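Field notebook, page 230. I keep forgetting to write these up properly, so this time I am using the form the group agreed on. The chain and the ligand, L45E5XJ5, are recorded exactly as supplied. Prediction of the bound pose follows.
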Amino acid sequence: MKKIIITIDGFSSCGKSTLARQLAQKLNYVFIDSGAMYRAVTLYFLRNHINWEKKKDVEKALSEINLSFQYNDQTGRSDIYLNDENVELLVRDMLVSENVSAVSTIREVREFAVAQQQQMGKKKGIVMDGRDIGTTVFPKAELKIFVTADPAVRVERRFKELFEKNPQITIEEVKNNLEMRDYIDSNREVSPLRQAADAIVLDNSNLTRDEQLHKALHWAKEKLQQVQHV
Ligand SMILES: Nc1ncnc2c1ncn2[C@@H]1O[C@H](COP(=O)(O)OP(=O)(O)OP(=O)(O)O)[C@@H](O)[C@H]1O
Ligand SMILES: Nc1ccn([C@@H]2O[C@H](COP(=O)(O)O)[C@@H](O)[C@H]2O)c(=O)n1
């Protein structure tokens, strides 16, 4: 059976990774959270005090970074590794969230990440979520989904998730971070967050996780049927 590439883009915290992970599981496809790659690069820059305003420092730092995803038996999910260290939890830290969008504006960082993402999709059978997956990484993807949700709903969902790990966190902190990232991501020069012209929009403000999966799975099955006849 022929396989396809599915891209899921959208604003911060609208449920892209949740949907992409579940969809990949149902289809027995690879799931890649491209945001985790930008987060891991940011973690490396912060830890090593890299001055990311300086192109040479960025290039040297990138040459020292190896990113990979490895399956975690305990969680049943793929974790991001930075130079053989599992940093899946560390990259979700607020300090990383505060800096990741600035780091993601850097052309060299994007070229570094995009080249690896395209390599991962060579054999198709992949669901990748992010900001520029349907526009830049896989512009010819068979199925592109652009997820949206009401900003207040997005803040509430992310707050609920982070509060469980850190009861000190405030809703203002979460709201400011989402707004800042959405602004930088949408306004950067290289590969800004955009809805691809051929993407299907999925507003999940009032949908459960199961309902959004059901819709996406329906679109994926339709696409799969079409490509078998080509
Ligand atoms: N339909 C839904 N209803 C309620 N909560 C949801 C729904 N979809 C996802 N969530 C929850 O919302 C939060 C954000 O989801 P997720 O991490 O998948 O978003 P994202 O778009 O990948 O975010 P980011 O780009 O910021 O990493 C998570 O806590 C997730 O469990
Ligand atoms: N394709 C992508 C994916 C992510 N980014 C940047 O990384 C940040 C974190 O991503 P999450 O999906 O984990 O929220 C995001 O805010 C972007 O700045 C990107 O540029 N391109």
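OBSERVATIONS:
- The two ends are 12 Å apart (CA to CA).
- The mean pLDDT is 97.
FOLLOW-UP: compare against the apo run.
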